[in-house]
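Q: Could you write out the predicted structure for this multi-component system? I'm mainly interested in how the pieces pack against one another.
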Amino acid sequence: MRRIAVLTSGGDAPGMNAAIRAVVRAGTQQGLEVVGVRRGFSGLHRGELSLLGARDVANIIQRGGTILLTARSHTWRTPEGRARGAQVLRDWDVDGLIVIGGDGSFHGGHFLQEEHGIPVIGIPGTIDNDLYGTDHTIGYFTAVETALDAVDKLRDTGASHERIFVIEVMGRHAGHIALDVAVAGGAEEVFIPEDSKPVSDVLEIVRDSVAKGKRGSIIIVAEGYPGGATGVAEAIEAGTGLETRVSILGHIQRGGSPVSSDRILASRLGEAAVYALMEGRRGVMVGRGATGLIYTPLPETWEKRKDVSRDLYSCAKTLSV
Amino acid sequence: MRRIAVLTSGGDAPGMNAAIRAVVRAGTQQGLEVVGVRRGFSGLHRGELSLLGARDVANIIQRGGTILLTARSHTWRTPEGRARGAQVLRDWDVDGLIVIGGDGSFHGGHFLQEEHGIPVIGIPGTIDNDLYGTDHTIGYFTAVETALDAVDKLRDTGASHERIFVIEVMGRHAGHIALDVAVAGGAEEVFIPEDSKPVSDVLEIVRDSVAKGKRGSIIIVAEGYPGGATGVAEAIEAGTGLETRVSILGHIQRGGSPVSSDRILASRLGEAAVYALMEGRRGVMVGRGATGLIYTPLPETWEKRKDVSRDLYSCAKTLSV
Amino acid sequence: MRRIAVLTSGGDAPGMNAAIRAVVRAGTQQGLEVVGVRRGFSGLHRGELSLLGARDVANIIQRGGTILLTARSHTWRTPEGRARGAQVLRDWDVDGLIVIGGDGSFHGGHFLQEEHGIPVIGIPGTIDNDLYGTDHTIGYFTAVETALDAVDKLRDTGASHERIFVIEVMGRHAGHIALDVAVAGGAEEVFIPEDSKPVSDVLEIVRDSVAKGKRGSIIIVAEGYPGGATGVAEAIEAGTGLETRVSILGHIQRGGSPVSSDRILASRLGEAAVYALMEGRRGVMVGRGATGLIYTPLPETWEKRKDVSRDLYSCAKTLSV
Amino acid sequence: MRRIAVLTSGGDAPGMNAAIRAVVRAGTQQGLEVVGVRRGFSGLHRGELSLLGARDVANIIQRGGTILLTARSHTWRTPEGRARGAQVLRDWDVDGLIVIGGDGSFHGGHFLQEEHGIPVIGIPGTIDNDLYGTDHTIGYFTAVETALDAVDKLRDTGASHERIFVIEVMGRHAGHIALDVAVAGGAEEVFIPEDSKPVSDVLEIVRDSVAKGKRGSIIIVAEGYPGGATGVAEAIEAGTGLETRVSILGHIQRGGSPVSSDRILASRLGEAAVYALMEGRRGVMVGRGATGLIYTPLPETWEKRKDVSRDLYSCAKTLSV
């Protein structure tokens, strides 16, 4: 193995730059050449590659976004697209590819390896934390912190006006962000896609809050809960006659300088991905679990389901008393 | 003058607590008793008053929201409501009232003084900065900072995806926040209620950006611009075929620990409001202008119009080249 | 079990308020009365106790410091002091005590239980993360984030002036903060008490940095490394003739609103401590490990040693290439 | 005028990048070529110049430090050094030079113009705010915010431990930062170089604080006050027997992403500096005062003295009651 490539793909996540840096520096330190692919699979398709040295990734560990740019590409979805991408990698004498992204990106990487024999290692980079095979994904910690900061701000206003705030956080299929934010934000209730409890459950909680003299309530709703924050707010207004305010946090959760946990996770996984390629591992995502690094076949990362912590879910309930 | 009262009213703004603290401490230091009214004019109406000592306002200068709570009250809109409020103040032997809020709150204070002879001093507390008679209002600086922080985060994503972000900031009637955020955020274009330029103006700017190879564009829209961010985004998509993302920052702009400029402004104006009452000033808002404190009759604060800085507006244009 | 008490002791740590809230709310939810002891063991000694209800701990989850106050007390060090404390707890009909703090506080709790039969549960609250029996201690994550924020700021100046910054972070006996900050801050080198490498090792690294054209270097030193940051800086100046700047971050690392990870950890452990008392556990610290909650006899928490992650230490080295 | 140059010199300050961006973009927009000089006057001396286009300054407005690098150079102090610098500018066909920095940098610019006829305009970039001819200098607002954030954190610990914190902020000759931080941080006392009151004044304040039951005290000391924070702390311990903690904030005050006020000030002054050169102004600093832009001959900026606000100083006193 003499030369490897790295790309970021799908939605950007804070810490992707730290992962790129780790791949480049660990690769360099191991005597490999590292090629950066710009704009994910669509850039690969178009041949947007260039060599990256250790100095090229200086002073980026603290930056949000990705210096390699990213795109939600569809080029890898067709056999022709993948063949073209593989050819580019061969033209560049690339012996292995590291893909930083989420499940869409891992699909791309998986087929590239299956059909064209390019060794591929995945690094989990997505704020949603919805990949099986790792306790946390790169970007998740920062997204939680950003959402929590917004909740803290809304609580100031909510408490001053004694209002009910219904706040929607990201998570199309998973309630990880919502649950963490609910516990850390001291929310009265949380709605996540993993639990099918009816929205009417919130009515008693809200009435109870008012009865207890709570000044302002915070309800957290994951994007993927049916109806979202708007649906929950409407149910509250219809069921209790109380006024609510909806806040949909949106894209700010994707940006910003990564917090320490994301930078450390990205550094470790970036380093580990390089070692994995050198050790001959193929078609796996490198993740971090309770007792160390985990290597999971790429298809399992999207086929198997990682549940939210039921203990934490129960804790959220207990502490909103 | 032996006893004064203070209340916060209307939308909360970061720095209101610093203003309350300044009123209580300057009053105490001058030998006055200070009464805090909870929940603005509606609380006044219901007699929610209590004495506040210097220690009661310890450790609040850094907190968002208002410890006195606030409400968007309509009680002061009727003569009966105002008579009731005046009676409560007389029952409590209050010799003067300090109202921290925006134009709605100042209306309430104005009529209270006109009809019932209660000396009233206003302190400008609103994030919108839309009051005549002061260069800045309490809460404005923090709202700009919060919005700017969001813009910086969105730029990370925007640059990584090479996307156009259309971001709506607060300002129902005024473009102050939007303009400051646009200059400080390095935005490509800004739409404010004070300028009637057509939304189609943005099309050339966006096309130009793409032609120049800019990675991602930021467009700032004040809430009060006709159509808001959604309207601008639709116009861009219809006119250029380019994809956009809309982000409406909303209520987070009201909360959070106040930045230094808001705390300092609030401290100065809170102190000055106490002195103003003691010096016999009546029915004025105390503001801070280019050369020091300004005292403006309350009606002028909402009747006269404070324009945005035209120099800054022109600067925004020049630097987006 | 009908009534329990909770106190914070030793150095304060961000997240202690979240832990107090969790104890009070989980206790209340389980039908217990919860008594708060102010000023740690010295307050216990003096009888500074009062009942805490669920509303008394509203709106504190986001606050730094501890609403129960703390003190570095020596009262528990004498048999008389402990006897006095035990008597106060009996006078208040307290059936169990939860101690939030570090090893000094756990000593106090341990002897109270050994000598007077008061059931005691410890919750690890210290920024240093130097307790055996838990992967992380409450306050640790926030301290790392605060230190990292400072490093990011110093890097701006360091890079602009092409200077060497030697930054000292907290950790009298442990290098956990230093190591995390070094990896997340992209430092060139890190010195921790756990590794006895000579300070002269840094000379080659610094010379190498200059040779590679790195703009500015960041060296992280744990407080407990012999000589501290000043010693390392002097060694660099003596050995290379290059100018350095020393920054000792100090007490700011103890304060501030806790980050999400500390709030969540504190919420979980506060809840678990109440359940532990109810289940009849005695004299243990409740911690969180790789696979869930861990209960460790109090003496083991200070007698056994928790090493820093050797993988992370090696990663720091690799990525500074 | 066809080509102008820009450099940053002396201590770096947040917002310098925003000023560079404004100079480059306003220049470009006016049809000028803009040359960036790296490493201030020493880089000028060595010919480290290169052309900067509008895209070269994209995405830097939010970054701390200076992309042009800076140095505390002594090359301009000798006639030979200045002659060499002037020759480089002539070789590069530069028609005017914009210097972003403090009084040392303005000395350099002044002599360059006096001796060699190079038109020079100064932009005030220093966190100390100690230049005559502008209400604020670029970087000042961010430094205050950073110091205030540290004070807020220390207050958490101070209040929890009921301790006296003596905090030293930057300001070798001026108390602007100290005064703003004291008011915004709710400090009990502030010591600045502009007031010669004896350190013993603090003793009564501290005793009084304790008597009033204040939990923890914050004392702010400007770097330039004789003895600094250490001297004040020693005086307190000697005079009252109370324990104190000293925190010297140091270089973190120079770094970090600039706050909105610094970015806006830098944008306006950068633009104005270009216009000033084009209008034929020479040897002046462009500043911003109460009623708009101000042009002050460079020597006046360091010869005349800008006092701290006496009203604010008095306010600090009143509100610490």
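A: Regarding packing and overall arrangement: The mean pLDDT of chain A is 95.
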